[in-house]
Amino acid sequence: MKKIVTRPDSMKDADMHYCAGCGHGIIHRLVCEVIDELKIKETTVAVAPVGCAVLAYDYWGFDTTEAAHGRTPSVATGIKRVLPDRLVFTYQGDGDLAAIGTAEIIHAGNRGENISVIFVNNGVYGMTGGQMAPTTLLGQSTMTTPGHRKASRDGFPIKITEMMAVLPGVVYLERTTVTSPKEVMKTKKAIRKIFDIQLAKKGFSMVEVLSPCPTYWGMSPIESMKRIENEVIKEYPLGIIKDTAAM
Amino acid sequence: MKKKYLCTGNEACGEGAMRAGCRFYAGYPITPQNELTAYMSVRMDEVGGTFIQAESEVSAINMVFGASVAGARAMTSSSSPGISLKQEGISYIAACELPVVIVNVMRGGPGLGNIMASQADYFQATKGGGHGDYHLIVLAPASVQEMFDFTYEAFALADKYRNPVMILADGTLGQMMEPLEFEENIPFSKGVSKPWALTGAKGRSAQHVKSLILGGKDETLEEHNLHLQEKYRKIIENEVRIETENVGGAEIILVAYGAMSRIGYSCVEAMREKGKKVGMMIPKTLWPFPYDEIRGIAEKNKHVKFLVVEMSSGQMVEDVRLAVQDDKRVFFYGRMGGGIPTEDAIAREILKIAK
Hints:
In chain A, about 35% of the residues lie in helices and about 20% in strands. Chain A contains 9 helices and 9 strands. In chain B, helix 1 packs parallel to helix 2 (about 35-45), helix 1 packs parallel to helix 6 (about 145-160) and helix 10 (about 290-300) packs across helix 11 (about 315-325).
């Protein structure tokens, strides 16, 4: 029998702790597929965040460390400066990257660190039980926005990827999602792009992936995908936000 | 050939790091340690190492985490308020058992305090600082020469035990100039291989350096803690350092560390010239603390009294009390907020106790 689908070589054979319908499993796999395609499993060092993806190293078959909450880009900076010929990437959620680690991501970008960032935006703190994230939409109900997120009390959803675009050290920014096979393939292409950019020593690049959290959105996996398509992308439009990498 | 220099303690510390083989430094401006950061910015460029002026002390300590996890000798430095900011990172570094050197050139506190010399971070340095059960190896230099020597050795200790090492200095040590001497061709301080470093899984299986330990199939967090405590016991066994002067037959022993021990020593010498039986103990490691050495003297001589002098409200004195185990024989004199106990003031305290 011909095998047409298999687990990527750089992905461990392990049961995932993620909830049903979570986007992390898809995105983890895409990272591994790209690493296999580039044949860089033995020269990659990843930095896991604090958040749902903290256990990424249980699923990734390449060297991975774990940073304090939000300090992920600083740890990656240290690794990359010491090992400039390795592929170094961070994998961060919206709480890690756009709240507690705002300073670290902005300044890693501003220094033009030659690292890649995979930013998974699901608009909620999943690990701790579904609190408001910096990216939570106005009107969205969470554990700490009873009823819904109100701008007068909770501020606005932050568009950190657009904010990063003004930094000269940041050469590539793209926002994608995983709501359909087509969008999943676009996300994979974007991850490949930012890894290629790093391998060509072009500077800092980031992909923001809009990802579902059925558990804390309080809906089914299918409804969650529809919510991204119907509501989330209105606030966070998909596409290439910046490209000065000249690749 | 030994060469002689005249430089500040901050610069001596920086050169000690360079000579030890430190090739990664990240820091953030704060007085009174700015000369050290500036020195590293020049020297790292000269040798092709990495210097980063980070956006915060929080980021700097995490950059050092990354450099160390990748196998490099790495250092950060700051002064008291900045060291408070680094505590989160220090706890993670201790948990992940990363060899890192952290320099604290202490200033007056609490809060923003002032930029004068102080020893008020003793508790923070020796009793934890960040969250969780961990220890730093804490070295207390007392001269510009020791700023160099201790920093040079700190990297070897950090590697040997896979443990963060803190150089606990103060504003006077950082800023004052004294002669410094070292071998021109001094080799890097003793290193060890680092098979745990994350350099890419070439020729081996993938590995992880992390501090989240949920148990399951692998080690439990309690087991990890027991492993750390076992390592700390080894450090206590092997690395305690203290200098003693004229303790045999002394009626009073002055105990002080760092810059304070220099003033204390002048006072003790002057009093001995006048025939007073005064000795001196100068801890060089604050963790591990020389409990046994102090207790040994206290037990041998049941009448000897101890005067602890600090630039703080009295922090190391608690460890001296634990060592002596007779509070009636332990006295304290200190000043805070940039005040420095003078030779005369210490002499008055000694005479008071001697009565």
